[in-house]
Each structure stands twice: as C-alpha cells, then as structure tokens.
C-alpha cells in the first residue's frame, strides 16, 4: 500500500449521523470513513446533500447540538473524540490545531471592526505576542496572500473589500495560528474563476510551506483535481470512492465518479448530448436499502441490494461497488 | 436588401444611478456600447466574470432594464410588443423564479394568463403539453414548485418560457444553481429544444466549457464591453485578447495542473468611473504604449473581432505572449 | 451553513405543508396557550347567548353587588346584573370591535401600502410622509382626539382606533412590496408583459400576506386594550352596553369593598390581550424564514 505516511490528524470511521426534523430523521451520513494525514491536501467531492460539509462540521463539532445526532461510528481528531472534549479543550483544538475557511467570507468577518483588529485579536488569543509583534505578523500573513498594500487593508472594514480580497484575508486568518489542519469548505464557489485560480494557488503554496494539512470540500471535480493529493467522492452520506487524485481521474472505479466526470461539457463534441446521470439523489428521509446509487446506476444488478463495503481495489484505492470488488478479487 | 437579423443589439449602453448616503450618488456604467446580432437558430454565448455587465445586458434585451443609449431590435424593429412574445428569459435560480404560491400549470401558462382570454381548462391542457415537451409528466402540473428538485424546477421555467412560442431565449446562467449531475440534463434539454423549434439562444454564463459546448459564436465581456467576439472554437481554442487568455488560463481543468505561479490577479476596476484607454490595461500582462488610447472592437482574422491594438494593428494575429509576466504580480486592491 | 448539506432533493418545503406548522406549534407551548385563548374568545363571541345564565341587561335590585356565588359566578354589579353574563357578552363588544378595527386597518393599510410600493415616485413619497405624521403622534392620544371630535360612541371609537393603526400596515405592506418587487418571479412576470395590477393581484399581495396576518394577530391584543381604554375614559362604548373597559370604569367606584366587580372584566381584558399577543408572537416565529430554518 502506498498510502501517504505521516501522523493521522483526523480519522473518521463509519460515521452515521441523522438530523431530527419535522418530517422525521434525515439520514445525512450513512457510514463515512476517511482520514487525513499531516501535510497532505485531501479533497472531498460531491453534490449538494452528499454530506461533505456535514462530515467536516461533525469532526469539529460545529453542528447544531439539538438536531444533529451521531448514531454510529466515531471521530478522532488529534487523538481525541471531539464529542467528549470540554468547551475549553474544544476551543484550544479549534483555535490552535484546526481552522475552517467558509464559502461566504462576508459572514465570517465582523462587519463593524477593521480587518487588522480582527486578525491581531485571533493571533493574540492563541499566541503569546504583544500587540506590535502580532500586527507585524498579521501584515506578513497578508503579504503572503499577495495583498500588495497590507497596511491599508489592515485599516479597512470588511465591506470595503471585494469578495476575493475578503477570502484572502480569511485564509490569512486561518493560517495565523499555525494550525496543523485547515478545513476549506467551498472557499472559491462564490468567486470568479480568475480569483479562484489565485486563491487555490495561495492555499496550495501556503500549505506546502507551512506543512499544514488541508481538507478541501468542493462540488467541482476539476478544482479538486488541480489542488488535492487524495480525494474522497461522497454520495448520499457515504464514501463512493477514495484514492490518489491522479489514479481516480485516470480510472474512476465507482460508476458515480465516472458519471460525475463524464457529464461535464468539454469531453464530447460541441452540441452533442452530454452523458447524464438519470434520476435524482435518494430521499435521505427514507433511503433505499443496499447501494444508494443503485437506482441511478447503469451497471446495477442483484448484488447491489446489499450495501457494498468501501473495500481496497488496488494500491491506495478503495471503492464501494460490488462490481469493482469482485473484479479485484478475481484478478 | 438583406433581411434584418432576428436580434440585433446596437451600441447598447445601460447606466443606472445608485444613491449613496444623503447626497447624490453615482452612475454605474453597466453596459458600455455593446453590439452584436443573433441569427435564426443560432446561439451566441456571452462570457465574463461577475460585474462585467452580462446579466444587465440580458435584462436590457428583455426590456427589464431601461436602456441609456443604443437599441435592441427584433427583426429590425424596436417595438416592445414584438419583443414581449418573441424573446423570453430563463433565470439562474429556478428556486426564486417560480412563485411558491402558484401551482405548476398556472406558472407554466403565466404568459398566456397575462394575455388573458383563456379558460383554466385550456391553460391546464396547454401546461400539460408544455410539461411533456420539457420532460415532465402531465400530472406534475397540479403540484407546487416546492415539490420539485432544482432540475425539475428549471424544466418548469423552460416550459413557461416556451408557452408563447418565442423565437429567442435569453439563458442567464441556466445551470449555475444546479448540481453537476443535473446540469447535463438541462443542457441536453436546451440543445434538443433548439433543434426541434429552431430557437435562438443568448447564453449568458461564466462557465467557459458550457459556452463552448452550446454556443456557435461567443462574445467575451469585460467591464461592460465586448473585448473579443467570434466563432466559439476560434475564440476559446486560440484566444487573441489578453483578457480572454487570462480568463481561459484560470478555468480549472483536469488536464492541467494548477498554475505554479499565481495568475495575473488584480481586481475589476470600478464601473462607477470608467478607466480611460483600454479597460483591461491595469491588469493586462502585455500592456504597453498605446494602451492608454481607447480601444475599438475591430475585425482581426477571419470572423473574429478583437478590442486590442496589439492584436488588430500589429500584423493581424500578433499574439503578445512574449511580454514577460512577473512571478508574483502586484495586484490592485478594491 | 449547516443546513446546506442536509436533505434529499433540495426541496424548499412550504411552511404550511406536511404538518410542519403543527410540529412547530407543538414545540412552543406559549403559542398553544395563545391559540387556546383565542379559540375560547372566538367561541364566547359566537355562543355568548347560549353560555350566559342571564340576559346581560337583566336588572335585579334585590341582588345588588352580590359576591360571587353559585347563582352568580362572578357576582353582580350595582344594579344586580350578572357579571359573568356581562363579561361573556362583553367579549362581543370588546373583542368583536378589536377584530373589526384590525380587519379595517389591515385592509386599508395593505392596499395603500402595496399601491405606494408599486406606483413609487411622488405618490409614494407623499403617502409615506403623511403616514410619518400619523406615526409621530402617540396612538392613544390621536385616537382620543379623533373620537372626541367625532362624538363618543362605540362606532366612532372603532373608527378612530382603526385610523390610528393604518400607518403601521402601510409601512409593512410597502416594505413587503418593495422586497417582492425585486424577486425573480416578479421580474419573470414583468418580462411576459404583466401590468402592475396583475403583479399586485397574483404575486405581491398573496406573498405579502403572511407577515401582515402576523402583525394583525399581534395587534389584536393591543387593540383590545386601546378600545377598552377609550371606553374606560368614556369615549367608547356607552352604558348600558356590556363592554369590558366601561365595566372596569364603573367598577372602580366599588373597588375596595366589591373586588369582583372590577376584577373579572379586568382579567378578561388581560387574558384576551395576552392570548392574542402570544399567538401573534408564535406565528411570527413560525412564519419568519430567518428564524424558521427548514
């Protein structure tokens, strides 16, 4: 096996989670297993409702307490179960070990305070630095984000900045406490492609130079393929496929992954019909038995009535599809 | 005399006033002199980033925004009534483009209902026909929008646009709000409807690969101007204007690793006070002398038009690739 | 946000459907209490003649100012009328009037407000400035002045309170209209050539209605109080009409020795006003999409 070595920072095993709602429990996660090692960039890809954000929010205990309930499986974040941490320990983990970058940078910044004050405050909350040292550190971080006049940006209020600039500020803040792990939840979805390209390369460079691991959540296969070392494809709250980015893209094993890549325009001649995935996502209030992709799968047969395990199908490759598992065993 | 094209947009300008604070306000120059035409059965793609004026352009074609200068002509006339029935629009978010309190049959036949003179029975029958033509089931028309998924709602919106048998649809980011697996369904539907009904499309999108797939011709917009226009594959496979290249370089692709150096960053200049000279000058990797002059959209090679003196004045296809790019370009801030 | 990842096919579920309203009500006991009080009040208004043991105006000088007993559950007043019956019938005057006032001001206010929002321009500015003038004056004082000018009667008091309530609805309806006017579906309808009247009838009014209904429910409580206050100072219902405010007014002379005279009509005002307030509060929480979640 050539799984990258390094300390396991986050390990999620067979996690199932429901949201209690007025219509009944929504089975948002149905056995997600994944791990993140020090220094690697891991992509989590899937469509809306596949559980990619929920998984990572569960790992950092950001889900609303009343409605989200873990029904099976476990999480180990830096060796601890986040569900068992005290509020104090949790704050330490969230501040020093893990940071999160969200999709909408405006909501993550306090609109009434200057950018500089907000960065300095975060730095000083977790590090023993005086105001002057913290300020110069903040300016250095902004400069790393290719912000040309960091002193001026420090004085600005969030509304004075464009979306791309705000996202760069948030990335600087995420890196400010030198965390071991950064969770980036669709950080470029609201941005234009030229800005997106910049943000992606900033994340990649900064993570490489600091040795920070990144979990990058996205619905965009192409973005993930450019950025990530490994990826997990999620479908309906389950991992459909996992492996190194290059190997998954070269030979997607799960029919869902294959369909997800093939339905993009650009792979067939212009004006020709695109390959489409039939049907819609299963209703997570009442998910069907067996493989959750069964109803939309062109290759489904009798075996798919049982839930396929996420099994190894090659070097550093796993897939949850009976057909692939069988092929691997017979080979 | 040749017959006038189905749609022609001539030197269109849209400015609107935004008030700020207690005193005055400023003009937003959303569209600054855009001209193009669309033939019967043709698709033109309008590509650009947010703030480039592509959505305002779409709304101006529909008459939803007042035009400050220029004209939008349908088969050579500027009459509003003709436009109302001949041009329809599909909005980006099918969640908000359907009134949540009306049943689907009523939504689909809204254009007919507004016109008046139809009994409900007639409307329901027509709605069922239209629903079938966009891949819904006839019994769907009795339901309400919230009972449908995003893709199905976009089908409802398409059926509604078809209710008055238009000649041209303005598609304003028709798949951006949808999941990847559903996008393909909608694209296929749009392509087959076009083939069946000889529809013309104005496809407004930031998604270059979608435009490449659907459009015959493409116009790249920057700050309310077209900077490059021509047959889709010519423009997207061999871009001439520096902005088109910047845009295409930034599009994430499977077959290309992330650029090891940051692409030319910088931010869109304000559309409150337009820059002098070439609008793209400050971000342009090949900016040189002459860029401080206003740039004209003129024919380059073949059917292509480009708004860049480096391309058009200097031997036709001069591709100013040679200008060195700084490794980490300084970027202008908002 | 957390909510994004959840849920099967992305379906915005209408808040009224699939028993979800009931589910939310269940989660909020105070709303239930409010709804129960509102139902009781409605029932009493309709069924007062059946429930009341005596006619409300039946004078019985032999039983003057009798303390609560089995014959007279709430006791009697200074001319021996049964207070229980009078409180029941008083619901008709007090709450019935409040309903009439709220309906009147809601309808007038919504129409003016939606028009103002749709037409815009100078008409809008003129209407809104006029409403600002109304809003600048304290409501009760304005109502007092109006009903004093019109002459003390129940009908005039009602008119006065209704006029005072109109500006709040105008503002609310106008705000709703302005935000709805920019919805994509309204834009879509405009692109099909819909007239302002069409937009108002089919898209704006139906969608603006739920916040207006919430406001109206909330206002019922306040209106009951205002109507009672006007009657209390003699500008509203005139004796011998059984109305809670005027009953409290005449009862205050006997406050020290015959506590029941003032207490039961007073409690009726308190409970019904509170009931409608609780119901309105609960409805607002349930219908407000920002607070509601999915």
Itemize the secondary structure elements and their pairings:
The complex is a heterotrimer of chains A (331), B (334) and C (294).
Chain A (H helix, E strand, L loop, with lengths): L7 E14 L2 E14 L3 E5 L6 H8 L8 E10 L9 H11 E4 L3 H4 L6 H12 L4 H14 L5 H6 L7 H14 L4 E5 L7 H18 L2 E6 L2 H7 L2 E6 L2 E7 H6 L4 H8 L48 E4 L2 E3 L2 H9 L1
Parallel strand pairs in A: 3-7, 3-8, 5-6, 6-7
Antiparallel strand pairs in A: 1-2, 1-4, 8-9, 9-11, 10-11
Helix pairs in contact in A: 4-5, 4-7, 5-7, 7-8
Chain B lengths: L6 E13 L5 E14 L4 E5 L6 H9 L6 E6 L5 H7 E4 L13 H5 L1 H6 L4 H14 L16 H13 L5 E5 L7 H18 L2 E6 L2 H7 L2 E6 L2 E7 H6 L4 H9 L47 E2 L5 E2 L2 H4 L22
Parallel strand pairs in B: 3-7, 3-8, 5-6, 6-7
Antiparallel strand pairs in B: 1-2, 1-4, 8-9, 9-11, 10-11
Helix pairs in contact in B: 5-6, 6-7
Chain C lengths: L19 H7 L2 H23 L31 H37 L1 H16 L2 H12 L3 H28 L2 H8 L4 H37 L11 H8 L7 H29 L1 H4 L2
Helix pairs in contact in C: 2-3, 2-10, 3-4, 3-6, 3-8, 3-10, 4-6, 5-6, 6-8, 8-9, 8-10, 9-10
Protein architecture, described:
The complex is a heterotrimer of chains A (331), B (334) and C (294). By secondary structure, chain A is of the alpha/beta class. Chain A has twelve helices and eleven strands. The model of chain A has no long low-confidence stretch (mean pLDDT 88). In chain A, helix 4 crosses helix 5 (131-144) and helix 5 (131-144) crosses helix 7. Chain A has an eight-stranded mixed sheet with strand order 5-6-7-3-8-9-11-10, sandwiched between helices. In chain A, strands 2-1-4 form a three-stranded antiparallel sheet, with helices on one face. Chain B is built from eleven helices and eleven strands. The relative contact order of chain B is 0.13. Chain C has one domain: MetI-like fold (Orthogonal Bundle). Chain C has helices at 20-26, 29-51, 83-119, 121-136, 139-150, 154-181, 184-191, 196-232, 244-251, 259-287, 289-292. By secondary structure, chain C is mainly α. Chain C contains eleven helices and no strands. The chains are: A alpha/beta (331), B alpha/beta (334), C mainly alpha (294). At the A-B interface, helix 8, helix 9 and helix 11 of A face helix 7, helix 8 and helix 10 of B.
Keywords:
heterotrimer; A: 331 residues; alpha/beta; 8-stranded mixed β-sheet; 3-stranded antiparallel β-sheet; 11 strands; B: 334 residues; Rossmann fold; 2 domains; 11 helices; 29% helix; 21% strand; globular; disordered C terminus
């Amino acid at each position: 096996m050539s799984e990258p070595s390094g300390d396991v920072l986050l390990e999620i095993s067979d996690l199932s989670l429901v949201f209690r709602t007025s219509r009944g429990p929504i089975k948002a996660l149905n056995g997600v297993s994944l791990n993140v090692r020090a220094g690697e960039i891991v992509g989590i890809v899937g469509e809306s409702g596949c559980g990619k954000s929920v998984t990572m929010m569960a790992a950092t205990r950001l889900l609303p307490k009343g409605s989200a309930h873990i029904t099976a499986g476990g999480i180990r974040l830096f060796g601890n179960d986040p569900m068992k941490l005290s509020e104090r320990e949790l704050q330490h983990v969230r501040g020093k070990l893990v940071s999160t970058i969200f999709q909408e940078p405006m909501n993550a910044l306090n609109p009434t305070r200057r950018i500089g004050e907000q960065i300095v405050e975060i730095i000083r909350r977790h590090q023993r630095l005086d105001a002057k040292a913290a300020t110069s550190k903040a300016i250095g971080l902004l400069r790393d984000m290719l912000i040309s006049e960091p002193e001026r940006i420090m004085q600005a209020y969030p509304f004075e900045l464009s979306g791309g600039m705000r996202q760069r500020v948030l990335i600087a803040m995420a890196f400010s406490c030198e965390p071991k792990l950064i969770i980036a939840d669709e950080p470029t979805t609201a941005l234009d492609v030229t800005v997106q390209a910049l943000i992606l390369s900033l994340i990649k460079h900064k993570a490489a130079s600091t040795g920070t691991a990144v979990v990058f959540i996205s619905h965009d296969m192409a973005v993930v393929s450019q950025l990530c070392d490994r990826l997990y494809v999620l479908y309906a709250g389950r991992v459909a496929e996992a492996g190194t980015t290059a190997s998954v893209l070269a030979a997607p094993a799960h029919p869902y992954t294959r369909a997800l890549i093939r339905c993009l325009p650009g792979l067939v001649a212009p004006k020709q019909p695109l390959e489409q995935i039939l049907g819609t996502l299963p209703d997570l209030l009442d998910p069907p038995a067996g493989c959750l992709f069964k109803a939309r799968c062109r290759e489904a047969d009798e075996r798919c009535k049982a839930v396929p395990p996420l099994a190894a199908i090659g070097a550093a490759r796993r897939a949850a599809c009976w057909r692939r598992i069988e092929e691997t065993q017979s080979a | 005399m040749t017959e006038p094209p189905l749609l022609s947009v001539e030197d269109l300008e849209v400015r609107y006033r935004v008030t700020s604070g207690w005193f005055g306000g400023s003009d937003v120059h959303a569209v600054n002199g855009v001209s193009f035409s669309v033939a019967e059965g043709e698709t033109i793609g309008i590509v650009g980033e947010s703030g480039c004026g592509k959505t305002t352009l779409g709304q101006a074609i529909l008459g939803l925004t007042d035009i400050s200068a220029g004209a939008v002509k349908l088969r050579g006339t500027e009459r509003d009534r003709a436009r109302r029935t001949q041009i329809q629009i599909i909005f980006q978010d099918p969640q908000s483009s359907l009134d949540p309190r009306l049943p689907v049959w009523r939504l689909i036949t809204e254009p007919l209902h507004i016109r008046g003179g139809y009994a409900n029975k007639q409307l329901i029958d027509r709605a069922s026909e239209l629903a079938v033509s966009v891949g819904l089931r006839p019994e769907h028309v009795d339901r309400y929008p919230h009972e449908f998924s995003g893709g199905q709602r976009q089908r409802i919106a398409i059926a509604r646009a078809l209710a008055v048998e238009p000649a041209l649809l303005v598609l304003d980011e028709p798949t951006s709000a949808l999941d990847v697996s559903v996008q393909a369904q909608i694209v296929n539907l749009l392509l087959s409807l076009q083939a069946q009904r000889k529809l013309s499309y104005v496809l407004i999108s930031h998604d270059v690969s979608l435009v490449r797939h659907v459009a015959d011709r493409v116009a790249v917009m920057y700050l309310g101007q077209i900077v490059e226009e021509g047959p889709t594959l010519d423009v997207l496979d061999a871009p001439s204007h520096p902005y088109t290249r910047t845009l295409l370089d930034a599009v994430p692709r499977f077959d290309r690793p992330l650029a090891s150096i940051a692409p030319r960053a910088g931010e869109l200049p304000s559309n409150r006070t337009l820059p002098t000279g070439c609008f793209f000058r400050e971000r342009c990797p090949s900016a040189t002398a002459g860029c401080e002059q206003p740039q004209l959209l003129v024919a380059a090679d073949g059917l292509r038009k480009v708004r860049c003196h480096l391309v058009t004045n200097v031997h036709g296809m001069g591709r100013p690739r040679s200008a060195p790019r700084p490794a980490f370009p300084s970027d202008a801030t908002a | 946000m957390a909510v994004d990842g959840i849920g099967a096919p992305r379906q915005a579920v209408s808040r009224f459907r699939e028993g979800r309203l009931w589910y939310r009500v269940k989660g909020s006991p105070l709303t239930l209490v409010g709804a129960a009080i509102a139902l009781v009040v409605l029932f009493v208004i309709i069924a007062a003649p059946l429930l009341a043991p005596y006619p409300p105006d039946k004078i019985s000088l032999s039983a003057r100012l009798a303390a609560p007993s089995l014959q007279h559950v709430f006791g009697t007043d200074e001319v021996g009328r049964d207070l229980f019956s009078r409180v029941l019938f008083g619901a008709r005057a007090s709450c019935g009037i409040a309903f009439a006032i709220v309906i009147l001001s809601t309808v007038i206010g919504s129409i003016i407000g939606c028009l103002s929002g749709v037409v815009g321009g100078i008409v809008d500015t003129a209407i809104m400035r006029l409403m600002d003038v109304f809003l600048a004056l304290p409501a009760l004082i304005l109502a007092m002045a109006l009903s004093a000018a019109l002459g003390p009667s129940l009908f005039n008091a009602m008119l006065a309170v209704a006029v005072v309530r109109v500006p709040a609805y105008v503002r609310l309806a106008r705000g709703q209209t302005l935000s709805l006017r920019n919805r994509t579906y309204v834009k879509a309808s405009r692109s099909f050539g819909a007239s302002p009247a069409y937009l108002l009838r089919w898209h704006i009014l139906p969608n603006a209605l739920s916040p207006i209904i919430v406001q109206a429910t909330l206002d019922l409580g306040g209106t009951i109080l205002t109507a009672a206050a006007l009657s209390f100072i003699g500008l509203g219902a005139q004796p011998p009409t059984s109305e809670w405010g005027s009953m409290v007014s005449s009862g205050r002379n006997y406050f020290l020795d015959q506590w029941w005279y003032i207490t039961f009509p007073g409690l009726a005002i308190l409970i019904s006003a509170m009931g409608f307030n609780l119901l309105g509060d609960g409805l607002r929480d349930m219908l407000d999409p920002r607070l509601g979640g999915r």
